[in-house]
Amino acid sequence: MKVLLLEDVYKLGRAGDVKKVADGYGRNYLLPQGLAVLATPGALQQVETIRSRATTKRSVLNEEMSSVADKLSKLVLAFPARTGETGKLYGSVSSQMIAEAIEDKTSVKVDRRQVDVQPIRSLGDYRVPIRLTMDLVPEIKVVVYREGEKPDLGEAQAEVAEQVAEPEVEVAAEE
């Protein structure tokens, strides 16, 4: 099925693009959500109008979100976790937990789908991209450390140590 995108769709394309998608994806998601229309000759005549509107909308949104991106790029989140001897977590640090910690620390509402990471299942430092818009993807630092120990934030983050977002969330073991 060929569709004309009315909005930017992550991992598919930008507004005004004509894309070939699976019938079910188009019929069950893109069309009902108003993200696309069928690529008919009449709809294809509106491509330039759709692209220009989307470009202005995208630039305004990026301008608004740039301050949020600056705030997030300086953020360091630390998660205490129970681990085994090899450093594997009993459970995981999920995108939902990261989104909640961001909201607690910065009062910026981030949906879990915007956190672009697989569940973290071992100790260490991670760079986690937060997808605010298609063009604006700041990265936050996530430190997962052993429960009862101090997190290793690195030399560059020493002055941020007092500001570390340390959510009081236990990593629950999956049953």
Architecture blueprint of SSEs:
Elements: E1 2-5, E2 18-20, H1 23-33, E3 36-38, H2 41-44, H3 47-73, E4 76-81, E5 88-93, H4 95-106, E6 120-122, E7 124-129, E8 139-146
Parallel strand pairs: 4-8
Antiparallel strand pairs: 1-2, 1-3, 5-6, 7-8
Feature tags:
3-stranded antiparallel β-sheet, about 180 residues, alpha+beta, Ribosomal Protein L9, domain 2, Ribosomal Protein L9, domain 1, 2 domains
- One letter per element, helices H and strands E, the order comes to EEHEHHEEHEEE
Assign the CATH superfamily of the largest domain.
Ribosomal protein L9, C-terminal domain
In which range does the helix fraction lie? Answer: 25-40%
Number of helices: 4
Descriptive notes:
The chain has 175 residues and is an alpha+beta fold. The chain is 31% helix and 22% strand. The chain has 4 helices and 8 strands. Strands 2-1-3 form a 3-stranded antiparallel beta sheet, covered by helices on one side. The chain has a 3-stranded mixed beta sheet with strand order 4-8-7, with helices on one face. Mean pLDDT is 85; it is low at 158-165.
